[in-house]
Specification:
CATH class: Mainly Beta
Shape: globular
Largest sheet: 8 strands, antiparallel
Number of helices: 2
Number of strands: 8
Strand content: 35-45%
Helix content: 10-25%
CATH architecture: Roll
Number of domains: 1
Order of helices and strands: EEEEHEEHEE
């Protein structure tokens, strides 16, 4: 599901605990590391700067009623800077191009550009069985 997905729902909360959910296009580096680009002033980016804990759901919204499945993640997320940004934008750019998008470079995510690169690192990845019980997913690098 992670490999075939294009968007993940990113659940964040502000300092007061007010929740916010945002769909973001993502690139993954295995089942525990996810990259996306966003403007720092968006609500989810502001939320992550003050509270990096996040929940993520990846699912196929086109699945027929009663057949939907999802991957759930508990993660810590934030803006990627320094040497990590080099690797992160390479991962992001490769998936973008593989899905028909354009190439990305550091210039696209550093000042004065409008967007920044973000990353979530999952501490837990799971699916739910028919009784809403968690089934851990093997984590890969």
């Amino acid at each position: 599901m992670i490999d075939n997905g294009r968007y993940m729902t990113l659940a964040t909360a502000d300092q007061a605990g007010r929740p916010w959910a945002s769909p973001v296009w993502y690139a993954d580096a295995g089942s525990r590391e996810f990259f996306w680009v966003s403007a720092p002033e968006t609500r989810h980016s502001r939320n992550l700067s003050g509270r990096p804990q996040t929940g993520i759901v990846i699912f196929d919204s086109r699945a027929p009623i009663g057949t939907g499945q999802a991957v759930y993640l508990e993660a810590v997320a934030g803006e990627v800077t320094g040497d990590d940004a080099v690797r992160g934008i390479e991962v992001f750019s490769a998936r973008s191009q593989a899905q028909g998008g354009h190439a990305w470079s550091l210039a696209d995510i550093q000042s004065p550009a409008r967007l920044r690169l973000y990353r979530a690192i999952a501490s837990e990845v799971f699916v739910l069985n028919g009784r809403d019980q968690r089934i851990a997913v093997a984590m890969t690098e």
